[in-house]
């Protein structure tokens, strides 16, 4: 059929996935996957609260003119489904502290959970429907991440943004109880709503923050359009002009079978990672290295220069232009700078929300250190299959100190304990200005949400 993928006369990929998702029941979901969904929900809600007073959330709020019965956490008023999904998704991803998937960096929680909660609150869906929606939508996003690893980035698109619309459409279809044909249409429609370029990397502007929220509201709209009878192309994934043609590159051919292979037996969503640091995914192992060196007694005053060994595929996002990465012009730009991450790791021994502020990025001692941090491409680096970090400090006396982090902490090779995820949730709610009583109430709601008869309790967390 031409230049991309041949489409069989049988079921298209969207039809196969939609058929599985439409039949998914809570009892089909393994305990590990259910636990991951609950951890994702807890992590997500804390992040939304943490950003509730941030200017980028206020800017999105100023652009909304529809009110309704859906909750945007920490906002007094209710919103329509799309507005609530947009606000919550933008807030959740705003500090780049949300869950991620190794392979091609993908942030399922920020795109899927806001869409599911908004649709469920509006429709009166049960907690079990919410669980199934989260799992189905996040599973699709994770599978899309491994169809053509790095292809979306190479083509100039943000994978979470474009795949997020597809995942959110699948998730909301499950919450609404759409049949397989309607869910297929929803996926086809979402393919024309998917968007999000990565030019934010140039100057650390805000558009990446918007991407998961935009994907979430796109999924809400696509599923409701499909329920109303709107038709979408069933070959949205593998067609000649389908998703992986539009958002890909010929140098990375897609393996479309990854979307449907072993559905219901292999759960890629179980492998999502939770971040210990409030910055870009591939920066995190280097921060671990820096903190390890600091804990071993390395003093910044001893350091002449620092060399980081990196994967070639990370350079254009985390290292170049080097002048910007060494002296980030915004706190958001600092989140995608390995020099900055290494510097705060050495100086502060942490990299939470307080390390990425206007005041901190202008600290003279920190900037003196970032100016001495460089990189070298390591041909043996496993990226994108594995996220590692190697930091080599050359000392003023001629000695060297080396630290290596062999994988992403918080990922499938070294999971964050539930207690650490909960501690992060509490800290984030505190950063957002909530007191302990309200924070614990939200945590309790999250821990019991999948057993709830409906989502009426969410309205208690407005304001």
From TrEMBL:
Residues 15-249 form the MmgE/PrpD N-terminal domain. Residues 277-431 form the MmgE/PrpD C-terminal domain. SUPFAM superfamilies: 2-methylcitrate dehydratase PrpD (SSF103378). InterPro entries: MmgE/PrpD_sf, MmgE/PrpD_sf_1, MmgE/PrpD_sf_2, MmgE_PrpD, MmgE_PrpD_C, MmgE_PrpD_N. One of its GO terms (molecular function) is lyase activity. Belongs to the PrpD family. This is MmgE/PrpD family protein.
